[in-house]
Design goal:
The complex is a heterodimer. By secondary structure, chain A is mostly helical. Chain A is 77% helix and 0% strand. The longest helix of chain A is centred in the middle third of the chain and has 30 residues. Chain B is an alpha/beta fold. In chain B, 36% of the residues lie in helices and 27% in strands. Chain B has 9 helices and 10 strands. In chain B, strand 1 and strand 2 form a beta hairpin. The longest helix of chain B is centred in the middle third of the chain and has 14 residues. Chain B is globular, with a radius of gyration of 17 Å. The chains are: A mainly alpha, B alpha/beta.
Chain lengths: 230, 230
């Protein structure tokens, strides 16, 4: 499963993995702002952003193709708008829209692939992002796995008793919802039983150090340099 | 002798109208172990979920002399550790170490202390080698050990074990039994397994339709309610 792979990647030991999640989050935000304000005509800048991401991913010892493949999952959504723009006669803007969404997805993936969930959600918390929003992210992340596993088991059970059909799939979705609800309730009970009080406490504290500041400065310089020069 | 658990007149009705508990009187001495027998749906699990306030019915519950109220809930959850029947519901963090540290962090331990305690407990249950592994990738026996470690890390005075040997093969069951026998806490063991009850507990309570139909020596209760396969 995708999120399991990313979970594994996030536990690497490269220099990027060791950077403070707050520094990485700030770098991501900078990248996204710079990327979104880049003119569609500055195609060399988009190429430079891609090179920057590839260098970062290779420094983090992450598989570039695997990362790009997952980032491409955003393309069907942005492609709809890109196609509409293309039909309206602005092919350069359409291309830039697709490039921006792909590069944004790749950058966000780089963050989660080099930072465990508890790390980047703790960084969000330190930035005073509403706790409810962080809790929703954390629960969705956990329950997605639970629901996916449940769906897998039900699919196997159904296949063992015959061929799939639309009616069967519809029935499975209904039962899956009820079972997921039940399972999620069980998990929540287990969390309460171990003293959960509405907040995940990050297990590994990472102090913001000189190397984090250096990393952030390098990211800022790289992003702004490309934006201004190209 | 000090009473670890004292329950008087406990009644509970599920929102759908099912009367699950019908006036339960129960006690457990400090350091004592008791087995809860009874058919499926007789109220055993519903009863144990009351012991750390996951369900709240009518009646009085005292844990280690402390009445269970909203004000004492946190304290009581640190005294009563519940090991759920399905370990998958109990293991929700990305790695084994983080999962076991979840309870101590909620208790207010510093991240360093919580991780140290988690490592110590994992060593005690024979899972020190799996600290960085994802809980979903463990075998059923390993998951059960990690689930027990997660509860032991909170240093409870009472252990509630709901069907601890479900899904386990005989050698794993034997290893688990050895582990549980070595734990000094008072234990409430919900089980259908008369052999497990004989090996782990000295007293048994038989549930029937939300009431306690009988209690006494394990062998006597097993014979009186014909609670064996043959």
């Amino acid at each position: 499963m995708h999120h399991l792979v990313i979970d594994r990647w996030s536990r690497g030991s490269s220099s990027l993995h060791q950077r403070d999640p707050r520094a990485k989050l700030a770098a991501l935000l900078t990248f996204l702002i710079v990327l979104s304000t880049t003119r569609p005509a500055a195609q060399a800048a988009f190429a430079a952003y891609a090179v920057l991401l590839i260098i970062t991913a290779s420094r983090a010892r992450l598989p570039i193709l695997g990362l790009a493949g997952r980032a491409a999952l955003v393309l069907p959504f942005s492609a709809t708008f890109a196609l509409l723009t293309w039909w309206s006669g602005d092919s350069l803007r359409a291309l830039a829209l697709a490039e921006k969404s792909f590069l944004s997805g790749m950058a966000a993936l780089l963050l989660v692939a080099t930072t465990p969930l508890t790390g980047w959600t703790a960084a969000l918390e330190s930035w005073h992002v509403p706790r409810m929003l962080i809790l929703v992210i954390q629960f969705v992340y956990r329950y997605l796995f639970v629901i996916a596993e449940q769906a897998q088991r039900m699919r196997w059970a159904a296949l063992c008793r015959g061929r799939g059909s639309f009616g069967l799939a519809a029935g499975l979705v209904g039962v899956l919802f009820a079972r997921s609800w039940q399972r999620a309730d069980g998990i929540y009970h287990a969390m309460l039983a171990r003293g959960f009080r509405g907040r995940f406490v990050p297990a590994v504290p990472v102090p913001l150090g000189a190397s984090d500041a250096l990393f952030l400065s390098a990211c800022l310089a790289g992003c702004l340099g490309i934006r201004i020069l190209l | 002798m000090n009473q670890a658990i004292h329950v008087r007149g406990l009644r509970y009705q599920y929102p759908d109208g099912t009367q699950a508990l019908n006036g339960i009187d129960f006690h457990l001495d400090a350091g004592e172990s008791v087995a809860l027998f009874g058919a499926n749906g007789s109220g055993k699990t519903t009863f144990v979920l009351h012991l750390n306030g996951l369900l709240r019915g009518e009646g009085a519950i005292e844990i280690c002399g402390l009445p269970l109220t909203d004000a004492t809930l946190e304290q009581i959850r640190s005294k009563v550790g519940v090991v759920f029947q399905d370990s998958d519901e109990q293991l929700f963090m990305p790695t084994v170490l983080e999962d076991v540290a979840f309870g101590p962090l909620n208790l207010g331990l510093s991240p360093d202390d919580a991780l140290t305690r988690a490592r110590t407990v994992l060593k005690r249950v024979g899972m020190a080698h799996a600290v960085e592994r994802a809980p979903y990738h463990l075998s059923a026996g390993e998951k059960k050990r990690v689930a027990i470690a997660g509860v032991l890390a909170m240093d409870p005075e009472i252990l509630v074990l709901d069907e601890p040997t479900t899904f386990l093969d005989p050698p794993t069951r034997r290893d688990l039994l050895t582990l549980l026998r070595g734990l000094p806490q008072a234990k409430v063991v919900v089980t259908h397994d008369a052999n497990l009850a004989r090996a782990l507990t000295t007293r048994a309570v038989f549930f029937d339709q939300g009431r306690i139909a009988g209690e006494g020596d394990v062998i006597e209760i097993v014979q009186r309610f014909h609670w064996e396969y043959s």
